[in-house]
Amino acid sequence: MKKITKIEYQKKNKDRFNIYLDDSYAFAVDMNVMIKYSLAKNMELDDDFISEILTAEEEMNAYNYAVNLLSRAPKSEKELKMKMQDKGYDVIFIENVIKKLREQRYIDDERYSEMFISSKINTSKDGRRKIKEALYNKGINKEIIDEKLSSVSEEEEIERAFLLAKKKLASMKEEDTRKKTLKLSNYLINKGFEYSTVKKVVSSLLKGDFDEFDQCY
């Protein structure tokens, strides 16, 4: 058995404590770990109990790392897992932390998807196809993606594509209608709009047909 002979605040982090066993520094713990195990001066610890405390400290470290990442920017569950894996945390710790964060609503793929869609529509002006691909790559469930994107109507999609295309057209120097059609259409497709939307918008702006463009796609 070893006895806790001293507990002190860390100078640079008041939420962490240095633990001394038998007058020698042994380890540091987060405040939550210290409270959980009721660590106090003169408390005696056996090796198994010390091992349990250190395991809890490792998991708390993983939790704090995840919370810090989320405080900087929202992340999907998959993104957070990958960040933690890259940091080298044990798989069991990662799963426990993800479960806890899910219960606390710190991570929520449905809410994340709503925020992501809103941002891409209002800031990047991306089309539904590009947004859908991005969410899929972030590990969002297909059912969630389809449900959240269903709130974006075809009319809204066409209007957004029209405004982008109109602005792009004003900056184009080409005189040839065919070149304008191809360039404008490729621009909208790269922004993530469906072909049917692109065809309607470009035809409306250029008053032309899509025969030549159709042959390219």
From TrEMBL:
It is found in: Cytoplasm. Residues 155-202 form the RecX third three-helical domain. Keywords: Cytoplasm. GO terms for cellular component: cytoplasm. Residues 62-101 form the RecX first three-helical domain. The keyword Ligase does not apply. GO terms for biological process: regulation of DNA repair. Residues 108-149 form the RecX second three-helical domain. Modulates RecA activity. Belongs to the RecX family. PANTHER family: REGULATORY PROTEIN RECX FAMILY PROTEIN. This is Regulatory protein RecX. It comes from Sedimentibacter saalensis. The gene is recX.
